Amino acid sequence: MPLLELNSIAKTFNHDPALSDVSLTIEEGTILCLLGPSGCGKTTLLRIIAGLERPDAGKVFFANRDMAHVAPYKRNFGMMFQEFALFPHLNVRENISFGMKMQGRPPAEIMERTREMLFLVGLEEFAQRGVSELSGGERQRVALARTLAPRPRLVLLDEPFGALDRALRERLLLEVRNILKRLGVTTVFVTHDQAEAYAVADIIAVMEKGRIEQR
User: Fold this and answer.
1) At a CB cut-off of 8 Å and minimum separation 6, what does 41 contact?
2) What is the pTM of this model?
3) Strand pairing report for 203-208 and 65-66
4) Mean pLDDT for each 10-residue chunk of the chain (215 residues)?
5) What dihedral angle (degrees, nearest 10) is formed by the CA atoms of 79, 32, 185, 171?
6) Contact indicator for 57, 10 with CB cutoff of 8 Å
7) What distance in Å separates the CA atoms of residue 121 and residue 30, rounded to the nearest whole number?
8) How far apart are CA 45 and CA 54, in angstroms?
């Protein structure tokens, strides 16, 4: 049975169709890429999965549960944007642990999980550094660790490499894939870059004009 199922999703903004009859299934542990040009609807679809947008028609099911009335913060989905959105007044350790603190996790659990994430992304020696002292690649790893730390059931990545230069992006592609596969976390990520899609994804869904044209 699929972990994530999208049934006939449709969305219109100002009479302009953003998504039209999009259906998709994703098995647990799979990394799926939504690949397509700007304006094709891939980010809108990601936001509907996250619960940040409501579809005009269609259903989102997760673990066989209709998510229509489940608030975004109750879905336990992790979302990482292109901008990373790290807190500049917090150090690396504090950024990674932030989501767990907001969930009210026990301090001992937060400390242990933060340590695990620092090791996973290779930033053990950077725990006390401010994020302004980090390179672009290091900031991306902090953002990924913060997304993964609360053990999300699904990870959503919106152009996660878009803010990085080409050389750094190519170096991190396989690193990020290896981290996601090591944890076995189901992932949907958005990109317009074919090289990113082929390097990271298990399955690629090509989008054009609000529809999935090829998978």
Assistant:
1) 11, 18, 19, 22, 207, 209, 210, 211
2) 0.89
3) unpaired
4) 94 92 95 94 95 95 95 91 82 94 92 93 92 88 91 92 75 85 93 91 95 84
5) -80
6) yes
7) 20
8) 10
